[in-house]
Design goal:
The protein folds into two domains: 174 residues, Rossmann fold; 183 residues, Dehydroquinate synthase-like, alpha domain (Up-down Bundle). Helices cover 46% and strands 16% of the residues. It has 14 helices and eleven strands. A seven-stranded mixed β-sheet has the order 1-2-9-6-5-3-4, with helices on both faces. It has a two-stranded antiparallel ribbon with strand order 7-8. The termini are far apart. Bound molecules: nicotinamide-adenine-dinucleotide and zinc ion.
């Protein structure tokens, strides 16, 4: 598998080193030392989950030790979305207190988007902020969750409602981790990749169409291109609107307004990407209904999602009233009216705040089985 050169992005004056390399986890200690502003780390707190720790935990710990960065303590949260909670954050804070973890610590998140969101939130707030490294182990985290410096936990009132912007200084992506990822999680992440294509370029959408089998087979060069291109698209947007002030970063929410509402209302029984897939279909159909997108493009998107085994219909319907209520709490809502990302064509997204409740209801109901 070819090695991607390390890239350095600057988000709001903060340099973020991103390295994508097979087996990079083995070199994590020396990588942290090289990237770390101001010398070697004193203490590393390794945060993972109960699925990832048995697979990669000890190896990572050893690599830290070999590189001269001692893993002072480790913590594995129960795997799954329910760990993005106050309770899990609270336990982690208490653990850091018990371990006397100070401001000199580096928190290393080893896992998927759940781990990087929770560990990122803890890193942003522990002692008003400690340094963060993200080692993503899912495709979702490689191409989306690890990039951009957003973190969050969920509260009963809504998903991702509590969080902060806190950039890691290093993101070390080891594509070899994807070999142990369940196929459902691999496919789920492809919804985000298709989202990136839809907001950026028809060429990237065509590339997906031409590479479904090699992507699912984790072909080396194709996997590198998949990760590299997604990072480039997301990082370019984040670099121009790091804290979501100008509306540009909001484009990354395509499919997420309805997607997050479904995710919440189904009690997290569907994967994040599966809900995004349904949200993308709803957003495309709404765009068509408003005369912005042609039917052929909508069908093209649905066909591609299906090829990655992603849902385009919600099998266990949720009442539209519940979905609309969840959307009103969405943090992207401004004064109660949800912001919608729609498409004027493939690669041509727009943010709209004037979509009527009736139109939203119809868009959601159009994805019911
Ligand atoms: N902060 C952001 O910008 C951002 C962006 C996108 C998504 N997210 C968040 O990310 C979360 C979804 O992330 P996810 O899809 O990575 O979910 P996840 O972290 O729950 O991982 C999915 C499953 O795969 C397991 N797993 C992880 N790595 C593995 C590996 N290498 N081998 C085997 N099993 C492995 C996990 O234990 C879990 O069971 C959601 O909460 C979403 O809101 C955040
Ligand atoms: Zn997402």
């Amino acid at each position: 598998m070819p090695v991607m050169n390390s890239l350095r992005y600057v988000f709001a004056d903060q340099p973020v080193d991103v390295t994508v390399e097979v087996n990079i986890l083995e070199e994590l200690g020396s990588l942290i030392r090289r990237s770390m502003p101001g010398g070697s780390p004193l203490r590393v707190v390794l945060i993972s989950d109960t699925n990832v720790w048995p697979l990669y935990g000890e190896r990572t710990k050893q690599a830290l030790r070999q590189g001269g960065a001692e893993a002072a303590c480790e913590w594995a949260i129960p795997a799954g979305e329910t760990s993005k909670s106050w309770a899990a954050a609270g336990e982690l804070f208490q653990f850091l207190a018990d371990q006397h973890v100070g401001r000199d610590a580096v928190i290393v998140a080893l896992g998927g988007g759940v781990v990087s969101d929770l560990a990122g939130f803890v890193a942003a707030t522990w002692m008003r902020g400690v340094r963060l490294v993200i080692c993503p182990t899912t495709l979702e985290a490689d191409i989306d969750a690890a990039i951009g410096g957003k973190n969050a936990i969920n509260i009963p009132g809504g998903k991702n409602l509590v969080g902060a912007f806190h950039q890691p200084f290093l993101i070390a992506i080891d594509p070899a981790c994807l070999t142990t990822l369940p196929r459902r999680d691999l496919c789920s992440a492809m919804a985000e990749s298709i989202k990136h294509a839809l907001i950026s370029s028809v060429d990237f959408l065509e590339w997906h169409e031409a590479n479904v089998d090699p992507i699912l087979a984790l072909d080396g060069p194709v996997t590198m291109k998949l990760i590299e291109e997604n990072i480039r698209i997301k990082a370019d947007i984040v670099a121009r609107d790091t804290t979501e002030q100008t509306g540009l970063r909001a484009l990354l929410n395509l499919g997420h307004t309805i997607g997050h509402a479904i995710e919440e209302c189904c009690g997290f029984t569907l994967r994040h990407g599966e809900c995004v897939s349904l949200g993308l279909v709803a957003a495309c159909r709404l765009s068509r209904r408003l005369g912005m997108l042609d039917s052929a493009s909508v069908e093209r998107v649905e066909r591609l999602l299906i090829r990655f085994s992603l849902p385009t219909r919600l099998e266990d319907p949720i009442e539209s009233d519940r979905i609309l209520a969840a959307m009103r709490n969405d943090k992207k809502a401004r004064g109660g009216s949800p912001q919608f990302v729609l498409l004027e064509g493939i690669g041509r997204p727009v943010v709209r705040g004037d979509i009527t409740e009736t139109a939203i209801r119809e868009a959601y109901e159009s994805v019911l089985a």
